[in-house]
Amino acid sequence: MQTSVDTATIRIQGGQRLAGRVSVSGAKNAALPVMAAALLTDEECLLENVPALEDIFVMADLLRWLGADVEFDQENGRVRICAANIHRREAPQELVERMRASFLVTGPLLARFGDVHSTTPGGCKLGSRPVDVDVRGLHRMGAKVEQGENGYHLSASRLYGNDIYMDYPSHTGTENLLMAATLARGNTRIINAASEPEIVSLGSILMDMGARISGVGTPHISVQGVDRLRGYRAAILPDRLEAGAFAIAAVITGGEVVLERVSEPDMLPLTHKIREAGGEVWWSEHEMMVRGNGPLKPTDIQALPFPGFPTDLQAPFAVLMTQAHGQSRIYERVFNDRLRYVAELQTMGANIELIDKQQAVIYGPSKLVGADVRALDIRSGACLVLAGLVAEGETRVREIQHLRRGHEDIVGKLASIGAQIDYLPAES
Ligand code: EPU
Hints:
32% of the residues lie in helices and 27% in strands. By secondary structure, it is of the alpha/beta class. It has a four-stranded mixed β-sheet. It has a four-stranded mixed β-sheet with strand order 2-15-17-16.
């Protein structure tokens, strides 16, 4: 007889040292824009190493709704997309409000079909998350913008290249404008562009499709528009955020973990801080070895656009800070409300002073104790799971639908390296 489990709650018995190997999944934030890029061509597109995550399912549903043919072989991580028969130019509210990245279809649809309607996107609640950078950039390329209660309607018989200065180096904003510019007439320069590894990977796949791009990965991107693009065959890059969460888990449990399939330059902002805190990191090809060794030292972090410390690892790193001997400080400079998880960590015994919505001081080391806590978004969910690994007794992390959006099989992977973690049996 099968035991029934409540897959909405993760249960962790803290105190285990992690040791072993973890295969890092493909990056959700790299897969989402590349899936949207399939809308730029009528040819077949094939993707490998795609993680089976809720956000990927939402993007697949959105593409299907628009008229694309999408097959997701989850077992092998392969996605096939053909956008030859797009019959809608409208991203529906029920999908867009579940995930901000659904706004990524706007640039490609407008560039290829001259017309798109999208409701204002939702996603994790991390503070204000406008899309004005995207909309203003598309307007600079000649799009007529109508904003109503139900979102944006953008139209242009053809986009024209132009200079676009981004007020803020928005991650998905850069991706949206980059995709739109590939089919615009003439040259587009995106200035103050974001340079995250996921954007570099998108740029390289767009170039395989025939786009003419230079400067991707720097704040100055230049795109010479072409009339049409080919299909692509590509593999999604490893998830630096998943790898980062496991690296922190290794350090705080005094463990030793090998992360398979990781890109060294993408991890630098984190490995630099892990070393500063007293953890050990070394590399062999695409494998990253992380070891927690002795007492941890306090550190300060500032979450910034890449290559600054990733905002997505700010909450997981806070757990490491609770175990360090001394005073650490967090300054979140990307989102204006991404410290909400602090209250949950305080419930577990963390000694954290919240200076304001973007700054916190952590006094360590604290003896964390198991508690009933809530995952408030993807990365704070990972933070609480990590806290559970070092807490005394049992931690229950509820509302893990957020974790399912961004961390593939976190329970199975942590259990495979020694964590006592499972889903809570139903009715307990
Ligand atoms: N911003 C503006 N105007 C805009 C767009 C953004 O002011 O038009 C501001 C936002 O208010 C925010 C900051 O810029 O304060 C950062 O937003 P950005 O647009 O760069 O982030 P995003 O594109 O919405 C992506 C990732 C996030 C990640 C951030 C930062 C995807 C699908 N999402 O979001 O990932 O935290 O970049 O690197 O790539 C996650 O995976 O859990 C996640 C939230």
